[in-house]
Amino acid sequence: MELNVTTLEGKAAGSVKLSDEIFGLEPRADLIQRCVTWQLAKRQAGTHKAKGRAEIWRTGKKMYKQKGTGGARHGSARVPQFRGGGRAFGPVVRSHAIDLPKKVRALALRHALSAKAKDGGLIVIDAAAISDAKTKVLSGHLSGLGLTNALIIDGAEVNTGFAAAARNIPNIDVLPIQGINVYDILRRQKLVLTKAAVDALEARFK
User: Fold this and answer.
1) What CATH number labels 2-42+99-204?
2) pLDDT tens digits for 62-88?
3) Rounded distance, CA 190 to CA 171, Å?
4) Helix (H, G, I), strand (E, B), or coil: what is residue 133?
Protein backbone atom coordinates (compact mmCIF):
# COMPACT_ATOMS: atom_id res chain seq x y z
CA MET A 1 0.00 0.00 0.00
CA GLU A 2 1.31 3.42 -0.97
CA LEU A 3 0.12 6.77 0.37
CA ASN A 4 0.97 10.31 -0.59
CA VAL A 5 2.81 12.34 2.04
CA THR A 6 1.79 15.94 2.63
CA THR A 7 3.06 18.79 4.78
CA LEU A 8 1.04 20.76 7.31
CA GLU A 9 0.77 23.53 4.71
CA GLY A 10 -0.88 21.09 2.29
CA LYS A 11 2.07 20.70 -0.10
CA ALA A 12 3.09 17.36 -1.57
CA ALA A 13 6.12 15.75 0.06
CA GLY A 14 6.51 12.49 -1.85
CA SER A 15 4.98 9.15 -0.93
CA VAL A 16 5.48 6.35 1.57
CA LYS A 17 5.02 2.60 1.22
CA LEU A 18 2.99 1.07 4.06
CA SER A 19 3.30 -2.56 5.10
CA ASP A 20 0.30 -4.72 4.26
CA GLU A 21 0.91 -6.68 7.48
CA ILE A 22 0.07 -3.55 9.49
CA PHE A 23 -2.20 -1.44 7.29
CA GLY A 24 -3.56 -3.98 4.80
CA LEU A 25 -5.40 -6.49 6.98
CA GLU A 26 -9.12 -7.19 6.71
CA PRO A 27 -10.40 -5.54 9.92
CA ARG A 28 -11.90 -7.88 12.52
CA ALA A 29 -14.50 -6.13 14.65
CA ASP A 30 -14.34 -8.80 17.37
CA LEU A 31 -10.64 -8.22 18.07
CA ILE A 32 -11.06 -4.45 18.10
CA GLN A 33 -14.09 -4.70 20.41
CA ARG A 34 -12.20 -6.94 22.86
CA CYS A 35 -9.31 -4.49 23.03
CA VAL A 36 -11.58 -1.45 23.56
CA THR A 37 -13.43 -3.30 26.34
CA TRP A 38 -10.08 -4.17 27.96
CA GLN A 39 -8.88 -0.55 27.76
CA LEU A 40 -12.05 0.98 29.21
CA ALA A 41 -12.27 -1.62 31.99
CA LYS A 42 -8.60 -1.15 32.91
CA ARG A 43 -8.91 2.60 33.40
CA GLN A 44 -11.85 2.36 35.84
CA ALA A 45 -10.75 3.35 39.33
CA GLY A 46 -12.93 0.84 41.16
CA THR A 47 -12.89 3.00 44.31
CA HIS A 48 -16.68 3.11 44.71
CA LYS A 49 -17.79 1.96 48.14
CA ALA A 50 -20.98 1.73 50.21
CA LYS A 51 -21.18 0.75 53.87
CA GLY A 52 -22.72 -2.58 54.79
CA ARG A 53 -24.60 -3.25 58.01
CA ALA A 54 -21.39 -4.33 59.75
CA GLU A 55 -19.82 -0.90 59.14
CA ILE A 56 -22.69 1.27 60.39
CA TRP A 57 -22.32 2.92 63.81
CA ARG A 58 -25.77 2.39 65.30
CA THR A 59 -27.13 0.42 68.22
CA GLY A 60 -27.70 -3.27 67.81
CA LYS A 61 -30.25 -3.40 70.59
CA LYS A 62 -33.63 -4.83 69.69
CA MET A 63 -35.84 -1.88 68.73
CA TYR A 64 -38.99 -3.03 70.53
CA LYS A 65 -40.47 -6.19 71.90
CA GLN A 66 -41.05 -9.09 69.57
CA LYS A 67 -44.80 -9.42 69.98
CA GLY A 68 -47.79 -7.26 70.65
CA THR A 69 -46.96 -4.13 68.63
CA GLY A 70 -48.98 -5.04 65.55
CA GLY A 71 -45.94 -4.24 63.39
CA ALA A 72 -43.20 -6.24 61.74
CA ARG A 73 -40.58 -8.03 63.84
CA HIS A 74 -37.35 -6.02 63.93
CA GLY A 75 -34.06 -6.28 65.74
CA SER A 76 -31.00 -4.20 64.86
CA ALA A 77 -31.37 -0.65 63.48
CA ARG A 78 -28.36 -1.26 61.22
CA VAL A 79 -30.26 -3.39 58.73
CA PRO A 80 -30.88 -2.12 55.16
CA GLN A 81 -34.64 -1.73 55.73
CA PHE A 82 -34.13 1.44 57.77
CA ARG A 83 -32.99 4.91 56.78
CA GLY A 84 -29.38 5.23 57.93
CA GLY A 85 -28.85 1.49 57.87
CA GLY A 86 -26.27 -0.39 55.84
CA ARG A 87 -26.72 -1.04 52.15
CA ALA A 88 -27.43 -4.57 50.96
CA PHE A 89 -25.13 -5.78 48.16
CA GLY A 90 -23.57 -2.34 47.71
CA PRO A 91 -20.47 -1.64 45.58
CA VAL A 92 -17.10 -2.53 47.09
CA VAL A 93 -13.55 -1.48 46.23
CA ARG A 94 -12.33 -3.78 43.47
CA SER A 95 -10.44 -3.91 40.20
CA HIS A 96 -12.48 -3.91 36.98
CA ALA A 97 -9.50 -5.02 34.88
CA ILE A 98 -9.86 -8.06 32.64
CA ASP A 99 -7.10 -10.13 31.07
CA LEU A 100 -6.20 -9.81 27.39
CA PRO A 101 -3.06 -11.46 25.99
CA LYS A 102 -0.34 -9.14 24.72
CA LYS A 103 -0.42 -10.77 21.26
CA VAL A 104 -4.17 -10.12 20.98
CA ARG A 105 -3.65 -6.46 21.94
CA ALA A 106 -0.92 -6.08 19.32
CA LEU A 107 -3.10 -7.74 16.67
CA ALA A 108 -6.06 -5.50 17.57
CA LEU A 109 -3.86 -2.41 17.06
CA ARG A 110 -2.89 -3.61 13.59
CA HIS A 111 -6.54 -4.24 12.75
CA ALA A 112 -7.50 -0.76 13.99
CA LEU A 113 -4.79 0.78 11.77
CA SER A 114 -5.99 -1.32 8.85
CA ALA A 115 -9.60 -0.21 9.47
CA LYS A 116 -8.56 3.46 9.24
CA ALA A 117 -6.57 2.81 6.08
CA LYS A 118 -9.47 0.92 4.49
CA ASP A 119 -11.98 3.69 5.31
CA GLY A 120 -9.75 6.42 3.91
CA GLY A 121 -9.22 7.93 7.35
CA LEU A 122 -5.41 7.60 7.31
CA ILE A 123 -3.18 10.58 6.46
CA VAL A 124 0.63 10.71 6.47
CA ILE A 125 2.37 14.04 6.99
CA ASP A 126 6.04 14.89 6.70
CA ALA A 127 6.47 16.18 10.27
CA ALA A 128 4.34 17.47 13.15
CA ALA A 129 6.21 20.73 13.78
CA ILE A 130 5.53 24.41 13.21
CA SER A 131 7.86 27.39 13.46
CA ASP A 132 5.22 29.67 14.98
CA ALA A 133 3.77 27.72 17.92
CA LYS A 134 0.37 29.43 17.97
CA THR A 135 -3.01 27.72 18.23
CA LYS A 136 -4.51 29.98 15.57
CA VAL A 137 -1.74 29.15 13.09
CA LEU A 138 -1.99 25.39 13.67
CA SER A 139 -5.79 25.51 13.52
CA GLY A 140 -5.54 27.13 10.10
CA HIS A 141 -3.17 24.41 8.86
CA LEU A 142 -5.42 21.63 10.12
CA SER A 143 -8.53 23.24 8.61
CA GLY A 144 -6.72 23.42 5.28
CA LEU A 145 -6.11 19.67 5.47
CA GLY A 146 -9.75 19.07 6.44
CA LEU A 147 -8.85 17.85 9.93
CA THR A 148 -11.53 18.83 12.42
CA ASN A 149 -11.59 15.56 14.37
CA ALA A 150 -8.25 13.77 14.35
CA LEU A 151 -5.61 11.86 16.30
CA ILE A 152 -2.06 12.93 15.43
CA ILE A 153 0.73 10.44 16.19
CA ASP A 154 4.34 11.64 16.15
CA GLY A 155 7.64 9.83 16.74
CA ALA A 156 9.28 9.03 20.07
CA GLU A 157 8.96 12.66 21.19
CA VAL A 158 6.24 15.15 20.30
CA ASN A 159 7.41 18.61 19.27
CA THR A 160 6.83 20.85 22.31
CA GLY A 161 5.55 23.84 20.32
CA PHE A 162 3.23 21.67 18.23
CA ALA A 163 1.76 19.98 21.32
CA ALA A 164 1.23 23.34 23.05
CA ALA A 165 -0.47 24.81 19.98
CA ALA A 166 -2.77 21.78 19.60
CA ARG A 167 -3.74 21.67 23.28
CA ASN A 168 -6.67 24.08 22.97
CA ILE A 169 -8.05 22.80 19.66
CA PRO A 170 -11.19 20.73 20.32
CA ASN A 171 -11.33 17.14 18.99
CA ILE A 172 -7.61 17.12 18.16
CA ASP A 173 -5.36 14.75 20.13
CA VAL A 174 -1.57 14.55 19.88
CA LEU A 175 0.34 11.49 21.15
CA PRO A 176 3.84 10.06 20.83
CA ILE A 177 4.16 6.68 19.16
CA GLN A 178 4.38 4.98 22.59
CA GLY A 179 0.86 6.20 23.37
CA ILE A 180 -0.89 4.87 20.27
CA ASN A 181 -3.89 2.74 21.22
CA VAL A 182 -7.01 1.21 19.70
CA TYR A 183 -9.57 3.31 21.59
CA ASP A 184 -8.07 6.69 20.66
CA ILE A 185 -7.72 5.61 17.03
CA LEU A 186 -11.40 4.70 16.80
CA ARG A 187 -12.78 7.72 18.67
CA ARG A 188 -11.40 10.18 16.09
CA GLN A 189 -12.48 10.39 12.46
CA LYS A 190 -8.97 10.77 11.04
CA LEU A 191 -5.64 9.22 12.00
CA VAL A 192 -2.61 11.36 11.12
CA LEU A 193 0.81 9.69 11.22
CA THR A 194 4.15 11.39 10.74
CA LYS A 195 6.87 9.64 8.76
CA ALA A 196 8.67 9.02 12.05
CA ALA A 197 5.56 7.32 13.43
CA VAL A 198 5.26 5.11 10.35
CA ASP A 199 8.92 4.03 10.69
CA ALA A 200 8.41 3.30 14.40
CA LEU A 201 5.32 1.16 13.66
CA GLU A 202 7.20 -0.76 10.97
CA ALA A 203 10.04 -1.44 13.42
CA ARG A 204 7.62 -2.43 16.20
CA PHE A 205 5.75 -5.04 14.15
CA LYS A 206 8.67 -6.27 12.11
Assistant:
1) 3.40.1370.10
2) 999 999 999 999 999 999 999 999 999
3) 10
4) coil
Give the total residue count for the chain.
Answer: 206
Contact 164, 56 (CB under 8 A): no
User: CA angle at residue 176 from 14 to 141, to 5 degrees?
Assistant: 50
Helix (H, G, I), strand (E, B) or coil at 149: coil
23: closest CA among 119, 105, 132? Answer: 119
Q: Domains of the chain: which residue ranges?
A: 2-42+99-204, 50-90
pTM as predicted? 0.83
The burial of 16, by beta-carbon neighbours within 10 Å (0-12 exposed, 13-18 middle, 19 or more buried), is given as middle
Dist. CA 141–CA 133, nearest whole Å:
12
pLDDT digits (tens, 9 = 90+) for 169-194: 999 999 999 999 999 999 999 999 99
Residues 205, 21: contact at Cβ < 8 Å?
yes
